[in-house]
Amino acid sequence: MRKSLLHLLVIVPVLFFVACENDDDTTPPEEVVTQLASTTYDLNSASELDVNGLFTIIKNSNNTTTLVIALTGTINVAEHPAQLRLNTAAEAGDVALELEPVSSETGRSSTTTDAFTYEELLDFDGHVNVQYSSYESDGLLVQGDIGQNDLTDTQITYDLLEKDVIDVSGNITFTKRVNGEALAVISLNGTPSGGSHPSHIHSNNAATSGPVIFTFNAVDGTSGIGKSNVSVLDDGTAFLYNDLLTVDGYINVHLSDSQPGVLLAQGDIDVNN
Predict the structure, then answer these.
(1) Where are the beta strands (DSSP E) in the chain?
(2) HSE-up of residue 199 (Cα within 13 Å, Cβ side)
(3) In the chain, what are the domains?
(4) How many CB atoms lie within 10 A of CB 54?
(5) Three-state DSSP class for 119?
(6) What is residue 19's predicted lDDT score, i.e. its pLDDT?
(7) Which pLDDT score, from 0 to 100, does residue 49 have?
(8) pLDDT tens-digit readout, 52-107
(9) The predicted structure's pLDDT at residue 74
(10) Which residues are CB-contacts of 110 (< 8 A; sequence separation ≥ 6)?
(11) What is the SS3 assignment for 112?
């Protein structure tokens, strides 16, 4: 008996050691991450190049979020830096999150993060920029508003008529955002190339004239385009899309800051239209 017991005492530790060793070698199963929901936003061309695309936010089962950029018409640059930024594209803003650069070969970028939840991004006050290259002076390739800044299908357009400079005319379109603010886009034909043209909403109608109540971003003379976010008047009073529908006002586009008396285009808006 003693011999047998000793034999058992020798064997049992060996078996225990082998069992433990086998346990240590076992690889835990890899976590399977599934996609629970997604939302997609447009990325529009921000240059003369024919490039546009989509920005998709994906909710993952492991509490991460994947941000996918997919562009069409990419150009022959190794990669395009991309960022999630604060504020609307018209306002610009600081970087909230650096995204993986977009490959010029695939036109795609994928960034998985836990910095923002899916729900936070759906209400995010921000936009996405994709640059032409790592040199900021090369400008933007595409950009698009996301979250609460996303554009709805609700919009209204007013004509801007020729004034003091021959053959300059166009329109302004206000598009309602998800958060009730508005994107204002002034589009003029015939503007002097290289110029920068101050633009405002004035109170009253054009025939009566009145003081400035809202200042737009200047219209670029080369493109004839000026984009602004509309959320508050110059005095700080809230001024949303629905307020535009009842405002007693008109729009002036001036030749320059140094020649404010020279008007490129003018047009009455809402109650005066």
Answers:
(1) 35-45, 52-60, 65-72, 79-86, 95-103, 108-113, 125-131, 140-147, 151-162, 169-177, 182-189, 196-197, 199-203, 212-215, 219-220, 225-230, 248-254, 263-270
(2) 29
(3) 35-147 (2.60.40.200), 151-270 (2.60.40.200)
(4) 15
(5) helix
(6) 45
(7) 86
(8) 999 999 999 999 999 999 999 867 777 899 999 999 999 999 999 999 999 988 99
(9) 64
(10) 66, 67, 68, 69, 100
(11) strand
CA–CA gap between residue 45 and residue 68 (Å, rounded):
17
Which residue stretches of the chain are H helix?
Answer: 2-25, 118-122, 241-244
The pLDDT of residue 2 is 32
Candidates 48, 66, 267; CA nearest to 163 is 267
Those residues of the chain that have pLDDT short of 50 are 1-21
Residue 238, C-beta contacts closer than 8 angstroms, at least 6 positions apart: 231, 232
Token look-up 């790592």 returns 134
Give the pTM. Answer: 0.85
